[in-house]
Amino acid sequence: MRVVIATPAERTHFLNLVPLAWALRSAGHEVVVASQPELAGAVSAAGLPFAPVGRDHRLRELTRRLYSLPGAADAVDWGDERTWRLPWNVLRVHYRQIVGFWWKAMNELLADDLVDLCRTWRPDLVVWEPTTFAAAVAARATGAAHVRFLWSLDLIARMRGSYLERMAEQPAHSREDPLGTWLSGLAARYGVEFDEELVVGQLTVDQIPPGMRLDVGGRARYEGSRFVPYNGRAVVPDWLRRPAEGPRLCLTLGTSSTGWYGGDSSLLRSSIDVLGEVEAEVVATVPPKAREELGTVPSNVRLVDYVPLHALAATSTAAVNHGGPGSVLTSMSYGLPQVMVADSRLFDTRLLARGVAEAGGGISLEADRVGPDDLRRAALRVLEDEEARRGAAELRGRMRSQGGPSALVGRLERHVTDGRT
Description:
By secondary structure, the protein is an alpha/beta fold. It has 19 helices and 13 strands. The chain is globular, with a radius of gyration of 21 Å.
């Protein structure tokens, strides 16, 4: 069968899809990745065919500008139940903003070309990351089956359900559905009628281990699949091929917070200073510019520009990260207890970090409230506490209980066949 894998030009979102893309190709299926031109290098490096669609987005630049404004950092945390108790007039403004500023802005740039690609190439299946709503429209417009592939918790489906529940409580004149209104208009341009399947897919692939998934009130139909770490083309250095001589702590605060929000290096600096007091080798992945700003670091800290995270996790005892799905799920897949210092601006990181902590896999801290003593105690616990190691090992077992991408291919084949039937 022919498969289009659709994603915006976000490298981390794409990397999450690569293991499935190669499983499909290995099973004999034709695969093409469709995204904005900026993603061409990452797709080529993964050895996959690429079809550029639409124009590159400027969301990172615009977001950095937005968050430089006074009060902008007070945006709501969509994973916090308190958000859904806000007054309706406040809640709908925030929801309108996330739909318009993120989802609509991203999809409008690629929708025409993506639909044209599907009409020309005639895929049997479209696999789309969960913000690429235009891919569901393109699949419906051309008669293809379509499947949503999550990179984290299904917060988007949770948000959709919670918003519609609050909207139903309002008098008719106060009701407003920004996502439904926009997506209805987008779908109509291509002769497609809107329904909730365009939001949640015919099927949703979820890599979160059983027991940690969000309750979305039956809005989506799920297939579980084991997370397989892939960090892009990389060379494993000599020192990383040998077992660590003692406890090793992997420190990665991700590129999302700086790339999207223009964050400063204060959290990184304070984290390195605190972890310099811990009896462990600390390996910190730090971009070259940030390394220059850091200057001298404690003797137990090794700064590296980049190493494949899965190779570092395989030799580590524990991890400290920013709560990003790639870092969290990679650490989880190697059974590492982890400290997650999550920032509410990064959409789902606090919710994911709390979920891992509640499942016994680590400790959740909030970036805007964490102090040096909090981080030190948390790091010592994940390095030394037997209960933390047992919890992380149990989570790894739950992850591995799910079939991987190769097993998922067969289920996707059946989904396409059933849809035709």
